[in-house]
Amino acid sequence: MDLGSQFRSAFGGRALAALDRAAALSAPGRAVDTLDVFLALMVVDAAAAWNRIWLEFGELNASAVGRYPDPRPEAGERWNGQPVTATCGQAIRAAVLLADGSDLMPASAGVLALCLVGEPTTAASRALAATSEEAHCVLLELVQEALVGGSWRDISSVLKQCFDRAADPGGPTGEDPDVQRFMKDPDVQRFVEDMADQMEALVGILNQFLRAGSPAESGQLLEQHPELLGLQVDKILAKSLKDAEEMRDEPGVRWLRERRGFLDNYRRLTGQTLPAATPVQRYGECPPDDHVMAHSIVEEPGYMSTAIRCEQCHVGYLVDLRAAEDGEMEAEYFVFPADGCDAISREIIMWAVATCEESFGVLERQGISVRRSTPVIGWRPESLRRHTRFIGDS
Ligand SMILES: [Zn+2]
C-alpha cells in the first residue's frame, strides 16, 4: 500500500508538506530517500532553528542529493505513487510510532526529522557526517532541542524500539485497537485498498503532470489521462497550494500556480472550439473536428464511473468500474450516440474504444487487473444519469 494514503492523517501539515514535496520533486522512478525528505523539511519548516545544527555539523544543501544512498534500497513502498527507499519507509513508520507512543500525534516536522536521522546509517545522518556513535548522539540531542522543542530521557533506546517495530511494513501501526479490528475486516480492507489504488493511480498521474518538463509533454499527459481534468485533481492541487502558502514555500507556490494555470488554460482551450454562432439545439453528430468534449467522474465506495461526451451533440462514452469480490476490477463500457441518432461515426467508436483501453492499461500497469465487458455500442447507459456535472460545460 502507498504510505502516503496509509499515514496521511498521522502527520501534521509541515511534515506532510515535506513528504509530498520530496515525492513530487524526485525524478520519475528514483526512490525518495531520508536525505530528500530532510532537505524538503528544511524548506517547509524554514523558520525552525536549523542554525543550531549547522553550527555543529555544517550546513546541508541540495548538492548532497544522491551522494549518500540509504542503506536499504526501494522494496515496493511508495509515497504518493513515488517509490521510497526501505530505510525511508521505516523512518516514516518510526515517526508515526514515536509520535503515537509519546502523545505527540499528529507527528510534527521535528519528530519526522528526528527519525530521518534516527539511525547513523541513514542518508540524512551520513550527509551530516554524524555516523560515529558520539557524533550521532550529539545530532539527536540537537535535533530534539532545535526541531522538536523537547527531549526524551533516553532517545537512543526509544528510537531503537520504534525502528524495530517499524522494520516490518505489515507490522503494528500504533493505531487504536478498535480501528485495527475494523481495518482487519476483509470488506473494509478491500474497500480501502481499492480506493487507495484509485487515488494512488490518480496522484501518480498528477505527479507526472506536475513534473512534466515541457508544455508538449504536459499536453500529451492531459490527452492520455482525461481524469486529470476531474474535480478531484482540483481539490488535491488546491490543498497542496494552500499547504505551500502556509509554509511560505515561494518556489513551490509559484510552481503549483503555474501548473494549475496550464490546466485551466487547457480546459478553456478544449471548451473554446465551440464557435460562438453554433445553434444551441442541434441533432446528429457534429463534424469530427467540431466536438466539444467534457468530462465527468462519479465516485462511490468501490465504484467509479467516468463519462466523456460532446457538449453539443452529446455523443460520447461511459466507463463503469466496480471492485469485484476477488479484488479485480470489473469494467463495463458504453459508447452512446448523439442526440436524435442511432448510428455513431466510426471515428468516435475508435476513439472511445482506444481511450478506454488506454485507461485500463494504466490501471493494469498499476497492478490492478481489469475484467472488461465487450463495449456496448449505441446504448445510453442508465448510469449516465448520475453524471450531472461535466467539466468543460460553457
Ligand atoms: Zn459533438
Give the helix/strand layout.
Layout: H1 3-6, H2 13-25, H3 34-44, H4 50-57, E1 74-79, E2 82-85, H5 86-101, H6 109-116, H7 123-127, H8 133-148, H9 155-166, H10 177-184, H11 186-211, H12 215-224, H13 231-246, H14 250-272, E3 293-300, E4 303-310, E5 316-323, E6 329-336, H15 346-365, E7 370-372, E8 376-377
Parallel strand pairs: 6-7, 6-8
Antiparallel strand pairs: 1-2, 3-4, 4-5, 5-6
The protein binds zinc ion.
Tell me briefly what this model is.
This protein has 394 residues and is of the alpha/beta class. Helices cover 50% and strands 12% of the residues.
Characteristics:
binds zinc ion; elongated; alpha/beta; 15 helices
Any overview of this molecule?
By secondary structure, this protein is an alpha/beta fold. The protein has 3 domains: 3-175; 184-272, no CATH class; 288-386, no CATH class. The protein is 50% helix and 12% strand. The chain contains 15 helices and 8 strands. The strands form 2 sheets. Strands 3, 4, 5, 6, 7 and 8 form a 6-stranded mixed β-sheet that branches. Helix 5 (86-101) crosses helix 9 and helix 11 runs antiparallel to helix 12. It is elongated. The structure holds zinc ion. Zinc ion binds next to loops.
